[in-house]
């Protein structure tokens, strides 16, 4: 089908097409195309008024000029009831009377030609070459998907800052301000908390989670290296002399679990528990246990190193999973 493109191929994480229903698939593809087309118009509609506006009056009877209408959400309050009625009537007319019948049961094909120009009286037969046509349709789907993400981002930023690309400094009520100068706030994502764990602004909870993040990151860095090194080097001799188990006998990865005897697992758990309970105890500063492997007398250099540790730990957590 069209839309199956690199890098994800056929992407249906929710399994909406798992029942194999062609009717449902075409209906959803129809909806996707309409939403994508509307979003492309909407995205352009956000961008263009920042640089150009139609001269003259939008509503001569009300003395409302195009230049008087702000961009984004702020425009909603400027349009009168009659203006909104015209918009809804126009959309309803197009939906019910023009784009209401598919050609050859193909989702999104209303016989309007390339870019829908036949709707305004310009004749267009579209593309005769099937490969070129498929490429154009794939491009439309890809651009529509991008536009759906873009317009939602514009809505979100506009609602919080007053502009589709407003300065986040204008979002004065953001609970994230309590942590936006913390370690780990780095390019390209800045302060990234999509689930909203820090929305309550609780400093102690933030420190506890940062402590956990650092520990998991450090363990993941060791684990990642522990996966890589045995592919190239193993200790000589015995891991367990009493059972005749040499280091060479232990496979790499998850297969090693069954090779380590119960006494070995007991030692590992006891060692990790001892350090967790008695050595590396939380003292109010996340990750600081008095072991100054990463240190510097220069505050900026120290911050850079600690940020690097967090970034490498995050990467290692993804890598080991």
**Category from helices, strands and their pairing:** mainly alpha
Biggest sheet features: 2 strands, antiparallel
Shape label: flat
- Please report the total strand number as a whole number: 4
Mean pLDDT: 84
Task: State the share of residues found in helices, binned by percent.
Answer: 40-55%
β-strand percent reads: under 5%
SS summary, helix count: 6
Strand order of the largest sheet: 1-2
Instruction: Tell me the distance between the termini.
Output: 32 Å
Order of helices and strands: HEEHHHEEHH
Unreliably modeled segments: none
Radius of gyration: 30 Å
Task: Furnish the topology, listing elements before pairings.
Blueprint: H1 22-47, E1 57-59, E2 64-65, H2 81-98, H3 130-161, H4 203-228, E3 238-240, E4 245-246, H5 262-279, H6 299-320
Structure description:
It is a single chain. The protein is mainly alpha-helical. It is built from six helices and four strands. It has helices at residues 22-47, 81-98, 130-161, 203-228, 262-279, 299-320; strands spanning 57-59, 64-65, 238-240, 245-246. Strands 1-2 form a two-stranded antiparallel sheet. Strands 3-4 form a two-stranded antiparallel sheet. It starts with 21 loop residues before the first helix and ends with a helix.
